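Blinded run. Sample ID left blank on purpose so nobody reads anything into the name before looking at the predicted structure. Input follows.
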Amino acid sequence: MEFPEDLLYTREHTWARQEEDGRVVIGVTEFVQRELGEISYVELPPEGEKVSQMEVIGSVESLRGVTEIYSPLSGTVMEVNELLLDDPTVINDDPYGEGWIAVVELEDPSELDRLMDAWDYQALIERELEGFSLEDDEEE
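Blinded prediction complete.
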């Protein structure tokens, strides 16, 4: 599983990448797309919508279920990835690149400090995966 070091992460499995112009690209992590399998539908936030940090801004859906997308930061949605409306599997193929969800004009740069770096997020995933395997062992 990839954990790009130029991204910041949330416990809710979204990522944020600050661009040179100050805007922030957000998306869902590889962990989400692996857990869901092939994504069949994406609900995107409307452009121009004001969002708050950790507010639900959309969802991704597959045969395995629906996962809400939480905004890692507060701001205004400036752009959404309309490619996902026609082909949501782009998230499966490239969650950290072409599979981005939205671009947000950042309201409070200090919120970036509340996100996890790649190392902390990787440790979180390892703990979650260990928890899954422990639960599986207990069921046997």
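Unblinding after everyone has recorded impressions. Residues 118-139 form the longest helix (22 residues).
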